[in-house]
Amino acid sequence: MVERVQAVRGMNDILPEAVPWWQMVEATAREVLELYGYREIRTPLVEKLELFARSIGESTDIVEKEMYAFADRKGQWLALRPEATASVVRAFIEHNLQADPLARKFYTIGPMFRHERPQKGRYRQFHQIDAEVFGIDDPLLDAELMVMLCDFLERIGLADVALHINSLGCPACRPSFREDLKRFLHHRAPSLCPDCDRRRHVNPLRVFDCKVDRCREALTGAPQLLDHLCEDCARHFEKVQSYLGGLGVPFMVDPRMVRGLDYYMRTTFEVITDRLGAQNAVGGGGRYDGLMRDLGGPDLPGIGFAIGMERLILLLQQGRSLQGPAPEVFMAVLGEKAVSEAFRTAQALRRSGLGVEMAYGGGSLKSQMRRADKLAAAYVVILGEEELQRGVAVVRNMKEKSQKEVPLSGLVEFFSRRDGSSGGAPDRAQEPV
Ligand code: HAM
After folding, report:
1. Is the separation of the CB atoms in 192 and 207 below 8 Å?
2. 311 & 265 share domain
Protein backbone atom coordinates (compact mmCIF):
# COMPACT_ATOMS: atom_id res chain seq x y z
CA MET A 1 0.00 0.00 0.00
CA VAL A 2 1.25 3.46 -0.88
CA GLU A 3 1.38 5.68 2.18
CA ARG A 4 -0.75 8.83 1.96
CA VAL A 5 0.57 12.28 2.71
CA GLN A 6 -1.79 14.06 5.08
CA ALA A 7 -2.25 17.72 5.91
CA VAL A 8 -0.19 19.15 8.77
CA ARG A 9 -1.94 18.79 12.14
CA GLY A 10 -3.97 21.88 12.99
CA MET A 11 -3.94 23.14 9.39
CA ASN A 12 -7.26 22.64 7.69
CA ASP A 13 -8.54 22.36 4.17
CA ILE A 14 -11.56 24.54 3.55
CA LEU A 15 -13.71 22.32 1.38
CA PRO A 16 -16.07 23.65 -1.32
CA GLU A 17 -19.14 23.03 0.83
CA ALA A 18 -17.77 25.39 3.52
CA VAL A 19 -16.49 28.02 1.12
CA PRO A 20 -19.83 29.89 0.74
CA TRP A 21 -19.59 30.74 4.46
CA TRP A 22 -16.07 32.08 4.04
CA GLN A 23 -17.09 34.10 1.01
CA MET A 24 -20.11 35.54 2.81
CA VAL A 25 -18.04 36.50 5.86
CA GLU A 26 -15.27 38.02 3.76
CA ALA A 27 -17.64 39.95 1.51
CA THR A 28 -19.54 41.35 4.50
CA ALA A 29 -16.30 42.25 6.27
CA ARG A 30 -15.03 44.16 3.23
CA GLU A 31 -18.35 45.93 2.87
CA VAL A 32 -18.51 47.01 6.51
CA LEU A 33 -14.81 47.94 6.78
CA GLU A 34 -14.96 50.03 3.64
CA LEU A 35 -18.09 51.75 4.94
CA TYR A 36 -16.02 52.93 7.90
CA GLY A 37 -13.18 54.10 5.66
CA TYR A 38 -10.72 51.17 5.88
CA ARG A 39 -8.53 50.27 2.92
CA GLU A 40 -7.07 46.86 2.27
CA ILE A 41 -3.38 46.11 2.70
CA ARG A 42 -1.71 42.75 2.06
CA THR A 43 1.57 41.87 3.73
CA PRO A 44 3.77 38.75 3.44
CA LEU A 45 3.05 35.64 5.48
CA VAL A 46 6.73 35.47 6.43
CA GLU A 47 8.53 38.23 8.34
CA LYS A 48 11.78 38.55 10.24
CA LEU A 49 11.41 36.82 13.59
CA GLU A 50 12.63 39.95 15.31
CA LEU A 51 9.52 41.88 14.22
CA PHE A 52 7.24 39.69 16.32
CA ALA A 53 9.65 39.34 19.24
CA ARG A 54 9.91 43.13 19.52
CA SER A 55 6.19 43.86 19.12
CA ILE A 56 4.19 40.98 20.61
CA GLY A 57 6.80 40.60 23.36
CA GLU A 58 9.56 38.09 24.18
CA SER A 59 7.76 36.72 27.23
CA THR A 60 4.34 36.15 25.65
CA ASP A 61 3.07 32.64 24.91
CA ILE A 62 2.91 33.51 21.23
CA VAL A 63 6.62 34.37 20.97
CA GLU A 64 7.91 31.94 23.59
CA LYS A 65 6.00 28.85 22.58
CA GLU A 66 3.83 29.22 19.54
CA MET A 67 5.78 30.75 16.72
CA TYR A 68 6.71 28.88 13.56
CA ALA A 69 10.26 30.20 13.50
CA PHE A 70 13.00 28.93 11.22
CA ALA A 71 16.33 29.89 9.74
CA ASP A 72 16.31 30.18 5.96
CA ARG A 73 19.13 28.90 3.74
CA LYS A 74 21.24 31.92 4.54
CA GLY A 75 20.72 31.51 8.29
CA GLN A 76 18.33 34.47 8.61
CA TRP A 77 15.72 33.95 11.33
CA LEU A 78 12.21 34.20 9.96
CA ALA A 79 8.72 33.39 11.24
CA LEU A 80 5.30 32.63 9.82
CA ARG A 81 3.20 35.53 11.04
CA PRO A 82 1.23 34.70 14.20
CA GLU A 83 -0.87 37.86 13.78
CA ALA A 84 -1.10 40.82 11.43
CA THR A 85 -0.68 43.95 13.54
CA ALA A 86 3.13 43.91 13.61
CA SER A 87 3.28 43.40 9.84
CA VAL A 88 0.86 46.24 9.09
CA VAL A 89 2.82 48.59 11.37
CA ARG A 90 6.08 47.49 9.71
CA ALA A 91 4.64 48.12 6.25
CA PHE A 92 3.34 51.55 7.30
CA ILE A 93 6.80 52.55 8.53
CA GLU A 94 8.68 50.96 5.63
CA HIS A 95 6.60 52.72 2.95
CA ASN A 96 6.42 55.99 4.83
CA LEU A 97 2.63 55.89 4.61
CA GLN A 98 2.50 58.64 7.19
CA ALA A 99 2.99 61.01 4.26
CA ASP A 100 -0.26 59.80 2.65
CA PRO A 101 -3.27 61.51 4.26
CA LEU A 102 -5.52 58.68 3.04
CA ALA A 103 -3.47 56.01 4.81
CA ARG A 104 -4.81 55.82 8.32
CA LYS A 105 -7.30 52.95 8.43
CA PHE A 106 -6.22 49.55 7.12
CA TYR A 107 -7.60 46.06 6.98
CA THR A 108 -6.19 42.74 5.95
CA ILE A 109 -7.66 39.25 5.72
CA GLY A 110 -5.60 36.08 5.67
CA PRO A 111 -3.95 33.13 7.38
CA MET A 112 -1.95 33.35 10.63
CA PHE A 113 0.13 30.61 12.25
CA ARG A 114 0.51 29.61 15.88
CA HIS A 115 1.84 26.29 17.13
CA GLU A 116 -0.88 25.77 19.74
CA ARG A 117 -2.47 22.49 20.77
CA PRO A 118 -5.26 22.05 18.22
CA GLN A 119 -8.84 21.71 19.46
CA LYS A 120 -12.25 22.95 18.40
CA GLY A 121 -11.82 26.61 17.47
CA ARG A 122 -8.03 26.53 17.91
CA TYR A 123 -5.80 25.67 14.99
CA ARG A 124 -2.21 26.08 13.87
CA GLN A 125 -3.18 27.81 10.68
CA PHE A 126 -6.20 30.04 11.17
CA HIS A 127 -7.56 33.13 9.48
CA GLN A 128 -8.12 36.62 10.76
CA ILE A 129 -9.98 39.68 9.60
CA ASP A 130 -7.73 42.38 10.96
CA ALA A 131 -8.27 46.14 11.20
CA GLU A 132 -5.67 48.73 12.23
CA VAL A 133 -5.77 52.52 12.56
CA PHE A 134 -2.76 54.81 13.01
CA GLY A 135 -2.38 58.41 14.09
CA ILE A 136 -5.63 58.92 16.04
CA ASP A 137 -5.73 58.91 19.84
CA ASP A 138 -9.31 60.15 20.18
CA PRO A 139 -11.35 57.75 22.35
CA LEU A 140 -14.14 58.20 19.83
CA LEU A 141 -12.12 55.97 17.50
CA ASP A 142 -11.84 53.26 20.19
CA ALA A 143 -15.63 53.29 20.48
CA GLU A 144 -16.10 53.40 16.70
CA LEU A 145 -13.87 50.36 16.27
CA MET A 146 -15.99 48.35 18.70
CA VAL A 147 -19.21 49.62 17.16
CA MET A 148 -17.92 48.55 13.75
CA LEU A 149 -17.04 45.12 15.10
CA CYS A 150 -20.55 44.72 16.56
CA ASP A 151 -22.12 46.09 13.38
CA PHE A 152 -20.24 43.48 11.35
CA LEU A 153 -21.18 40.62 13.69
CA GLU A 154 -24.82 41.65 13.58
CA ARG A 155 -24.82 41.80 9.79
CA ILE A 156 -23.52 38.28 9.45
CA GLY A 157 -26.15 37.08 11.89
CA LEU A 158 -24.17 36.80 15.11
CA ALA A 159 -25.81 38.90 17.77
CA ASP A 160 -25.43 36.74 20.87
CA VAL A 161 -21.86 37.70 21.73
CA ALA A 162 -20.63 39.81 24.64
CA LEU A 163 -18.28 42.77 24.35
CA HIS A 164 -15.76 42.90 27.20
CA ILE A 165 -13.60 45.97 27.64
CA ASN A 166 -10.74 47.04 29.88
CA SER A 167 -8.00 49.63 30.11
CA LEU A 168 -4.38 48.58 30.52
CA GLY A 169 -3.13 52.04 31.43
CA CYS A 170 -0.05 53.65 29.94
CA PRO A 171 3.69 53.94 30.70
CA ALA A 172 2.80 56.60 33.27
CA CYS A 173 0.47 54.47 35.38
CA ARG A 174 1.33 50.87 34.60
CA PRO A 175 4.66 50.72 36.50
CA SER A 176 2.99 51.33 39.85
CA PHE A 177 0.47 48.61 39.05
CA ARG A 178 3.27 46.24 38.05
CA GLU A 179 5.00 46.78 41.36
CA ASP A 180 1.76 46.18 43.24
CA LEU A 181 1.11 43.04 41.26
CA LYS A 182 4.68 41.83 41.76
CA ARG A 183 4.29 42.21 45.51
CA PHE A 184 0.98 40.34 45.40
CA LEU A 185 2.46 37.53 43.27
CA HIS A 186 5.48 37.26 45.55
CA HIS A 187 3.14 36.06 48.30
CA ARG A 188 1.39 33.67 45.91
CA ALA A 189 4.61 32.30 44.39
CA PRO A 190 4.30 28.76 45.80
CA SER A 191 0.92 28.35 44.04
CA LEU A 192 2.12 29.48 40.61
CA CYS A 193 3.12 27.22 37.73
CA PRO A 194 6.86 27.35 36.82
CA ASP A 195 6.15 29.63 33.83
CA CYS A 196 4.25 32.14 35.94
CA ASP A 197 6.82 31.96 38.73
CA ARG A 198 9.38 33.10 36.17
CA ARG A 199 7.05 35.64 34.55
CA ARG A 200 6.11 37.34 37.79
CA HIS A 201 9.61 38.86 37.73
CA VAL A 202 9.92 39.78 34.04
CA ASN A 203 6.34 40.44 32.96
CA PRO A 204 3.85 39.97 35.82
CA LEU A 205 0.83 41.01 33.72
CA ARG A 206 1.23 37.82 31.70
CA VAL A 207 0.22 35.79 34.77
CA PHE A 208 -3.36 36.95 34.06
CA ASP A 209 -3.10 35.08 30.74
CA CYS A 210 -2.17 31.74 32.23
CA LYS A 211 -4.70 28.98 31.67
CA VAL A 212 -3.44 26.77 34.50
CA ASP A 213 -6.17 26.43 37.15
CA ARG A 214 -3.94 26.96 40.15
CA CYS A 215 -2.58 30.21 38.70
CA ARG A 216 -6.11 31.44 38.09
CA GLU A 217 -7.02 30.65 41.66
CA ALA A 218 -3.86 32.33 42.92
CA LEU A 219 -5.02 35.56 41.29
CA THR A 220 -8.10 35.86 43.50
CA GLY A 221 -7.91 39.26 45.14
CA ALA A 222 -5.13 40.47 42.83
CA PRO A 223 -4.76 44.24 42.39
CA GLN A 224 -6.67 45.70 39.47
CA LEU A 225 -5.27 47.92 36.78
CA LEU A 226 -8.39 50.03 36.74
CA ASP A 227 -7.59 51.18 40.28
CA HIS A 228 -4.18 52.43 39.12
CA LEU A 229 -5.13 54.39 36.00
CA CYS A 230 -3.66 57.88 35.75
CA GLU A 231 -5.98 60.80 35.16
CA ASP A 232 -5.52 60.77 31.36
CA CYS A 233 -6.11 57.04 31.05
CA ALA A 234 -9.13 57.17 33.36
CA ARG A 235 -10.65 60.00 31.32
CA HIS A 236 -9.95 58.18 28.07
CA PHE A 237 -11.61 55.03 29.36
CA GLU A 238 -14.62 56.94 30.67
CA LYS A 239 -15.11 58.59 27.29
CA VAL A 240 -14.91 55.26 25.48
CA GLN A 241 -17.62 53.90 27.76
CA SER A 242 -19.79 56.95 27.39
CA TYR A 243 -19.56 56.86 23.56
CA LEU A 244 -20.49 53.17 23.58
CA GLY A 245 -23.33 53.82 26.01
CA GLY A 246 -24.54 56.71 23.88
CA LEU A 247 -25.06 54.32 20.97
CA GLY A 248 -26.71 51.73 23.18
CA VAL A 249 -23.94 49.17 22.65
CA PRO A 250 -23.99 46.71 25.54
CA PHE A 251 -20.56 46.00 27.08
CA MET A 252 -19.01 44.70 30.25
CA VAL A 253 -15.92 46.06 31.97
CA ASP A 254 -13.61 43.11 32.62
CA PRO A 255 -10.66 44.29 34.77
CA ARG A 256 -8.90 40.91 34.40
CA MET A 257 -8.66 41.03 30.63
CA VAL A 258 -5.00 41.71 29.77
CA ARG A 259 -4.86 40.20 26.24
CA GLY A 260 -2.02 37.92 25.18
CA LEU A 261 0.20 40.45 23.46
CA ASP A 262 2.52 42.97 25.12
CA TYR A 263 1.98 45.94 22.83
CA TYR A 264 -1.35 47.02 24.27
CA MET A 265 -2.02 50.06 26.39
CA ARG A 266 -5.23 51.82 27.42
CA THR A 267 -8.36 50.38 25.75
CA THR A 268 -8.50 46.63 25.16
CA PHE A 269 -11.54 44.61 24.19
CA GLU A 270 -12.72 41.13 23.32
CA VAL A 271 -15.86 39.67 21.84
CA ILE A 272 -16.78 36.57 23.78
CA THR A 273 -19.18 33.72 23.11
CA ASP A 274 -20.33 30.90 25.37
CA ARG A 275 -21.00 28.59 22.42
CA LEU A 276 -17.44 27.48 21.59
CA GLY A 277 -16.22 25.84 24.77
CA ALA A 278 -12.73 26.85 25.85
CA GLN A 279 -12.03 28.99 22.77
CA ASN A 280 -14.46 31.69 23.77
CA ALA A 281 -12.88 34.75 22.09
CA VAL A 282 -14.25 35.43 18.63
CA GLY A 283 -12.16 38.56 18.30
CA GLY A 284 -10.09 40.98 20.26
CA GLY A 285 -7.99 44.06 20.04
CA GLY A 286 -6.95 47.29 21.62
CA ARG A 287 -4.81 50.37 21.57
CA TYR A 288 -1.02 50.16 21.10
CA ASP A 289 0.17 53.76 21.13
CA GLY A 290 3.88 53.05 21.66
CA LEU A 291 4.34 50.27 19.12
CA MET A 292 5.06 52.29 16.00
CA ARG A 293 7.81 54.23 17.80
CA ASP A 294 9.24 51.04 19.35
CA LEU A 295 9.54 49.54 15.88
CA GLY A 296 11.57 52.51 14.68
CA GLY A 297 8.74 54.47 13.10
CA PRO A 298 7.10 57.81 13.86
CA ASP A 299 5.52 58.21 17.28
CA LEU A 300 1.95 57.63 16.13
CA PRO A 301 -0.78 56.03 18.20
CA GLY A 302 -2.41 52.84 16.94
CA ILE A 303 -5.45 50.73 17.63
CA GLY A 304 -6.98 47.68 16.01
CA PHE A 305 -8.61 44.30 16.36
CA ALA A 306 -8.70 40.90 14.75
CA ILE A 307 -11.55 38.44 14.36
CA GLY A 308 -10.87 34.70 14.14
CA MET A 309 -12.68 33.52 11.03
CA GLU A 310 -12.77 29.81 11.93
CA ARG A 311 -14.48 30.59 15.23
CA LEU A 312 -16.91 32.94 13.55
CA ILE A 313 -17.83 30.37 10.94
CA LEU A 314 -18.18 27.58 13.52
CA LEU A 315 -20.73 29.76 15.30
CA LEU A 316 -22.57 30.68 12.13
CA GLN A 317 -22.73 27.09 10.95
CA GLN A 318 -24.34 25.76 14.11
CA GLY A 319 -27.55 24.21 12.80
CA ARG A 320 -27.51 26.02 9.50
CA SER A 321 -26.29 25.47 5.97
CA LEU A 322 -25.46 27.84 3.21
CA GLN A 323 -25.90 26.90 -0.43
CA GLY A 324 -23.10 27.48 -2.85
CA PRO A 325 -23.75 28.78 -6.34
CA ALA A 326 -25.82 26.44 -8.54
CA PRO A 327 -25.51 26.49 -12.34
CA GLU A 328 -28.29 28.34 -14.11
CA VAL A 329 -28.19 25.93 -17.02
CA PHE A 330 -27.29 22.28 -17.38
CA MET A 331 -26.48 21.38 -20.97
CA ALA A 332 -27.75 17.86 -21.74
CA VAL A 333 -26.54 16.23 -24.94
CA LEU A 334 -27.93 13.25 -26.81
CA GLY A 335 -25.79 11.70 -29.52
CA GLU A 336 -22.22 12.27 -30.63
CA LYS A 337 -23.15 14.72 -33.39
CA ALA A 338 -24.78 17.18 -31.01
CA VAL A 339 -21.73 17.50 -28.72
CA SER A 340 -19.90 20.21 -30.68
CA GLU A 341 -23.02 22.34 -31.03
CA ALA A 342 -23.84 21.89 -27.32
CA PHE A 343 -20.28 22.94 -26.43
CA ARG A 344 -20.60 26.02 -28.64
CA THR A 345 -24.00 26.89 -27.15
CA ALA A 346 -22.70 26.50 -23.59
CA GLN A 347 -19.88 28.92 -24.37
CA ALA A 348 -22.31 31.47 -25.87
CA LEU A 349 -24.51 31.24 -22.75
CA ARG A 350 -21.51 31.61 -20.40
CA ARG A 351 -20.32 34.64 -22.31
CA SER A 352 -23.75 36.17 -21.74
CA GLY A 353 -23.19 35.78 -18.01
CA LEU A 354 -24.96 32.51 -17.20
CA GLY A 355 -23.43 29.70 -15.17
CA VAL A 356 -23.47 26.59 -17.36
CA GLU A 357 -22.51 23.01 -16.50
CA MET A 358 -21.98 20.43 -19.25
CA ALA A 359 -22.91 16.78 -19.40
CA TYR A 360 -19.42 15.41 -19.87
CA GLY A 361 -19.27 11.93 -21.33
CA GLY A 362 -22.91 11.88 -22.46
CA GLY A 363 -24.98 9.04 -21.01
CA SER A 364 -28.74 8.55 -21.05
CA LEU A 365 -31.08 11.53 -20.80
CA LYS A 366 -32.32 10.13 -17.49
CA SER A 367 -28.86 10.07 -15.93
CA GLN A 368 -28.11 13.55 -17.25
CA MET A 369 -31.36 14.89 -15.75
CA ARG A 370 -30.45 13.28 -12.42
CA ARG A 371 -27.12 15.10 -12.46
CA ALA A 372 -28.82 18.43 -13.32
CA ASP A 373 -31.14 17.86 -10.38
CA LYS A 374 -28.25 17.16 -8.01
CA LEU A 375 -26.51 20.33 -9.15
CA ALA A 376 -29.77 22.22 -8.57
CA ALA A 377 -29.61 23.73 -12.08
CA ALA A 378 -32.52 26.08 -12.77
CA TYR A 379 -32.83 25.00 -16.43
CA VAL A 380 -31.74 22.06 -18.55
CA VAL A 381 -31.07 22.71 -22.23
CA ILE A 382 -31.48 19.42 -24.11
CA LEU A 383 -29.81 19.10 -27.46
CA GLY A 384 -30.24 15.85 -29.45
CA GLU A 385 -29.41 15.03 -33.04
CA GLU A 386 -33.03 15.43 -34.02
CA GLU A 387 -33.24 18.94 -32.45
CA LEU A 388 -29.93 19.80 -34.02
CA GLN A 389 -31.32 19.08 -37.47
CA ARG A 390 -34.24 21.40 -36.83
CA GLY A 391 -31.99 24.11 -35.30
CA VAL A 392 -33.76 24.06 -31.94
CA ALA A 393 -33.13 22.97 -28.34
CA VAL A 394 -35.54 21.90 -25.63
CA VAL A 395 -35.41 24.16 -22.57
CA ARG A 396 -36.74 22.62 -19.39
CA ASN A 397 -37.59 24.77 -16.41
CA MET A 398 -36.66 22.50 -13.50
CA LYS A 399 -38.71 24.33 -10.89
CA GLU A 400 -41.93 24.60 -12.87
CA LYS A 401 -41.34 21.24 -14.58
CA SER A 402 -42.36 22.77 -17.90
CA GLN A 403 -40.50 22.73 -21.18
CA LYS A 404 -40.52 24.38 -24.57
CA GLU A 405 -38.56 24.43 -27.79
CA VAL A 406 -36.36 27.44 -28.43
CA PRO A 407 -34.41 28.12 -31.66
CA LEU A 408 -30.68 27.64 -31.06
CA SER A 409 -30.01 31.08 -32.46
CA GLY A 410 -32.41 32.61 -29.92
CA LEU A 411 -31.19 30.83 -26.76
CA VAL A 412 -29.07 33.67 -25.40
CA GLU A 413 -31.93 36.08 -25.86
CA PHE A 414 -34.42 33.62 -24.33
CA PHE A 415 -32.39 33.45 -21.11
CA SER A 416 -31.68 37.15 -21.00
CA ARG A 417 -35.42 37.88 -21.13
CA ARG A 418 -36.77 35.06 -19.01
CA ASP A 419 -37.04 37.03 -15.79
CA GLY A 420 -36.64 40.54 -16.96
CA SER A 421 -32.89 40.39 -16.33
CA SER A 422 -30.36 41.03 -19.03
CA GLY A 423 -28.31 37.92 -18.36
CA GLY A 424 -26.07 38.92 -15.49
CA ALA A 425 -24.43 36.61 -13.04
CA PRO A 426 -26.43 33.61 -11.89
CA ASP A 427 -28.34 34.07 -8.68
CA ARG A 428 -26.36 32.84 -5.73
CA ALA A 429 -28.37 31.46 -2.90
CA GLN A 430 -26.52 33.22 -0.12
CA GLU A 431 -29.19 33.26 2.54
CA PRO A 432 -28.87 30.73 5.34
CA VAL A 433 -31.56 28.07 4.95
P1 HAM B 1 -5.55 37.72 19.31
O2 HAM B 1 -6.48 37.89 20.45
O3 HAM B 1 -4.31 36.98 19.54
O4 HAM B 1 -5.26 39.18 18.78
O5 HAM B 1 -6.31 37.03 18.11
C6 HAM B 1 -7.52 37.56 17.62
C7 HAM B 1 -8.50 36.44 17.33
O8 HAM B 1 -7.90 35.46 16.47
C9 HAM B 1 -8.90 35.62 18.55
O10 HAM B 1 -9.93 36.27 19.26
C11 HAM B 1 -9.38 34.34 17.91
O12 HAM B 1 -10.70 34.46 17.44
C13 HAM B 1 -8.45 34.19 16.73
N14 HAM B 1 -7.40 33.23 17.03
C15 HAM B 1 -6.25 33.44 17.71
N16 HAM B 1 -5.53 32.30 17.79
C17 HAM B 1 -6.24 31.34 17.15
C18 HAM B 1 -6.03 29.95 16.86
N19 HAM B 1 -4.93 29.32 17.25
N20 HAM B 1 -6.98 29.29 16.18
C21 HAM B 1 -8.09 29.93 15.75
N22 HAM B 1 -8.34 31.22 15.99
C23 HAM B 1 -7.43 31.93 16.66
C24 HAM B 1 -4.43 39.47 17.75
O25 HAM B 1 -4.02 38.66 16.96
C26 HAM B 1 -4.15 40.94 17.60
N27 HAM B 1 -3.22 41.11 16.47
C28 HAM B 1 -5.44 41.70 17.38
C29 HAM B 1 -5.19 43.16 17.19
C30 HAM B 1 -5.17 43.83 16.03
N31 HAM B 1 -4.90 44.01 18.14
C32 HAM B 1 -4.71 45.21 17.61
N33 HAM B 1 -4.85 45.10 16.32
Report:
1. yes
2. yes
Query: 385 in a domain, yes or no?
Result: yes
pTM of the model: 0.89
Looking at residue 419, its pLDDT comes to 61
- CATH number of the domain within which 34 lies: 3.30.930.10
SS3 readout for 191-204:
HCCHHHHHHHHHCH
**Is residue 303 assigned to a domain?**
yes
Instruction: Residue 332: count other Cβ atoms within 10 Å of its Cβ.
Output: 27
Quick one: 169 and 278 in the same domain?
yes
Nearest CA to ligand 1 atom 23: 308
Task: Output the CA 4–ligand 1 centroid distance in Å.
Answer: 32
Instruction: Say yes or no: 242 and 355 in one domain.
Output: no
Provide residues with CB under 6 Å of ligand 1.
Answer: 83-85, 114, 116, 122-123, 126, 128, 130, 132, 260-261, 281-286, 304-306, 308, 310-311
Question: Do 294 and 245 share a structural domain?
Answer: yes
Check whether residue 313 and residue 355 sit in a common domain.
Answer: no
Q: What is the pLDDT of residue 324?
A: 79
Q: Find the CATH number of the domain harbouring 339.
A: 3.40.50.800
In a domain, 217, yes or no: no
| The pLDDT value given to residue 209 | 82
**Cβ-count burial 14-49 (b if 16+ within 10 Å, e if not):** eeeeeebbbebbeebbeebbeebebeebebeeebeb
Q: Are residues 143 and 236 in the same domain?
A: yes
Q: How far is the centre of ligand 1, averaged over its atoms, from the C-alpha of 283 (Å)?
A: 6
**Atom 18 (ligand 1) nearest CA:** 122
Start-to-end CA distance of the chain, whole Å, equals 43
Measure 89 CA to ligand 1 centroid, in angstroms.
16
Measure 261 CA to ligand 1 centroid, in angstroms. 10
The pick from 43, 80, 112 for probing ligand 1's pocket by mutation, whose C-beta has the most ligand atoms within 8 angstroms, reads 112
Task: State residue 334's pLDDT score.
Answer: 95
**3-state SS class at 115:** coil
- The DSSP 8-state label assigned to residue 135 in this structure reads S
Domain that holds residue 375: 329-416
Identify whether 72 is part of a domain. Answer: yes
pLDDT mean for each 10 residues of the chain (433 residues) = 95 95 97 97 98 93 94 98 98 95 92 96 97 96 97 91 96 92 92 91 88 90 93 98 96 92 95 87 96 96 98 89 87 94 95 94 92 95 95 96 95 83 39 36
Q: What is the pLDDT of residue 260?
A: 86
Q: How far apart are CA 321 and CA 252, in angstroms?
A: 32
Atom of ligand 1 nearest to the CA of 283: 10
| Structural domain count, the chain | 2
